[in-house]
Design goal:
hydrolase, endonuclease, nuclease, Ribosomal_Su5_D2-typ_SF, 4-stranded mixed beta sheet, 4 strands, 120 residues, alpha+beta, Ribosomal Protein S5, domain 2, Ribonuclease P protein component
């Protein structure tokens, strides 16, 4: 398994984000809100939203995005064929990065359980 995060694994266009938001399949916790919508591509794709209300400085916003992308890159093989949009709700830094990654893993696990129960 090549752990890469290529262009085909990203949501890039506004209408791709809009279609995920429209379905309203979301789970949230203190750090993140994750939206999901099934796709027909056979692999998961990721979109990120980190607003200025969450973190004023671009350095902090970029750190949050890098952390989420890294988690996705390492875990994309286990994810279902869905489009995911991760919206940051609370800024975090190096001191509480592990808490944020654990919270993100928990949200994706919840979404996977939901998808499994709704498809059966």
């Amino acid at each position: 398994m090549a752990y890469r995060f290529r262009r085909v694994h990203r949501l890039l266009k506004t209408d791709e984000f809009s279609s995920v938001f429209r379905l309203r399949g979301a789970r949230s916790n203190l750090f993140f809100q994750v939206y999901a919508a099934p796709n027909t591509l056979g692999h998961a794709r990721l979109g990120l939203v980190v607003g200025k209300k969450v973190a004023k400085r671009a350095v902090r916003r970029n750190y949050i995005k890098r952390t989420v992308r890294e988690w996705f890159r390492l875990n994309q093989a286990e994810l279902p064929a869905c489009d995911f949009v991760v919206r940051a709700r609370l800024a975090f830094g190096r001191d509480n990065r592990n808490d944020a990654v654990t919270a993100l893993s928990a949200l994706f696990a919840k979404l996977a359980r939901c998808r499994a129960s709704s498809s059966s």
